[in-house]
Amino acid sequence: RMFGKLFISLLVLLAFHHDLTDAQKKKETLLSEKVTQMMEWASKRSVIRMNGDKFRRFVKAPPRNYSVVIMFTALQPQRQCGVCRQADEEFQVLANSWRYSSAFTNKVFFASVDFDEGSDVFQMLNMNSAPTFLHFPSKGKPRRSDTYELQVRGFAAEQLARWVADRTDVQIRVIRPPNYAGPLLLGFLLAVIGGLAYLRRHNLEFLFNKNVWAFSALCFVLIMTSGQMWNHIRGPPYAHKNPSTGQVSYIHGSSQAQFVAETHIVLLFNAAVTTGIVLLCEAATSDIDIGKRKIMCVAGIGLVMLFFSCLLSIFRAKYHGYPYSFLIS
């Protein structure tokens, strides 16, 4: 009887081990099929386009031993999401840099889900804005740090590469296609300046005109103080459009970030305040008719008051709790 019990127990263990082995083989086979399919798609497109079915099968459902970085976007013309197109270009640069590098492996894949092709995925993730970048790790669920801080870091490929390296330990060297627009523009500008200097070679007094240099310096200061250098470094979106409501925001609600449109607005407001101050200075020191000087004075005061109030209003919108306002609350 004891021998019979041992024999039955052995049979049960063998059957259980056989079931585990079969389940493990099925899991490995399924994983191999998924990786093979992802590699095949990546060989055709650096950014794999996904809909709801592909997302559930290749990203959400186990098994999975690879990470997926997904851009959720809205690229259809009727969505009018200019920021999405700009972010898509940078995402393509990043994905191509990884796909065609010598270090490319199946450890990380890049994909995109368009709102019009995968609205169910947006609903599944409770997502109501685009573009949004999410990292789905090979093990476990995405954490808070797996959501890219687009409003703070911008969508430049270099910034995205740093975030991907932080989340996956995969270092991607961003390689951009050659862009000759900058050198051509610089060459054209130098040619124009050289041509003007050649035409005026017998009369170069304009080079010593203090008004010319003052205006050039003022333009440079206005450009720098409006945040253009920050835009160049961080690469923020021009504006933000909520795909659900269609509302476009030109002013970022945080003091830690900004939109490109916001810097243009601040640049114009600063220029208007500066113009008002120049008019006031001219009204006080000029020898022109007293009536014209009064007009210049009133115009200068109006420009300074109105646009300084606008600048203060933008400051209040970004620094919540700031107590002071002027004309515009």
TrEMBL record:
<dbReference type="GO" id="GO:0008250">
    <property type="term" value="C:oligosaccharyltransferase complex"/>
</dbReference>
<feature type="transmembrane region" description="Helical">
    <location>
        <begin position="211"/>
        <end position="230"/>
    </location>
</feature>
<protein>
    <recommendedName>
        <fullName>Dolichyl-diphosphooligosaccharide--protein glycosyltransferase subunit MAGT1</fullName>
    </recommendedName>
</protein>
<feature type="transmembrane region" description="Helical">
    <location>
        <begin position="180"/>
        <end position="199"/>
    </location>
</feature>
<keyword id="KW-0812">Transmembrane</keyword>
<keyword id="KW-0732">Signal</keyword>
<dbReference type="Pfam" id="PF04756">
    <property type="entry name" value="OST3_OST6"/>
</dbReference>
<keyword id="KW-0813">Transport</keyword>
<feature type="transmembrane region" description="Helical">
    <location>
        <begin position="295"/>
        <end position="315"/>
    </location>
</feature>
<comment type="similarity">
    <text>Belongs to the OST3/OST6 family.</text>
</comment>
<keyword id="KW-1003">Cell membrane</keyword>
<dbReference type="InterPro" id="IPR036249">
    <property type="entry name" value="Thioredoxin-like_sf"/>
</dbReference>
<dbReference type="GO" id="GO:0005886">
    <property type="term" value="C:plasma membrane"/>
</dbReference>
<dbReference type="GO" id="GO:0018279">
    <property type="term" value="P:protein N-linked glycosylation via asparagine"/>
</dbReference>
<keyword id="KW-0472">Membrane</keyword>
<feature type="signal peptide">
    <location>
        <begin position="1"/>
        <end position="23"/>
    </location>
</feature>
<keyword id="KW-0460">Magnesium</keyword>
<keyword id="KW-1015">Disulfide bond</keyword>
<keyword id="KW-1133">Transmembrane helix</keyword>
<feature type="transmembrane region" description="Helical">
    <location>
        <begin position="265"/>
        <end position="283"/>
    </location>
</feature>
<dbReference type="InterPro" id="IPR021149">
    <property type="entry name" value="OligosaccharylTrfase_OST3/OST6"/>
</dbReference>
<comment type="pathway">
    <text>Protein modification; protein glycosylation.</text>
</comment>
<keyword id="KW-0256">Endoplasmic reticulum</keyword>
<dbReference type="GO" id="GO:0015693">
    <property type="term" value="P:magnesium ion transport"/>
</dbReference>
<keyword id="KW-0325">Glycoprotein</keyword>
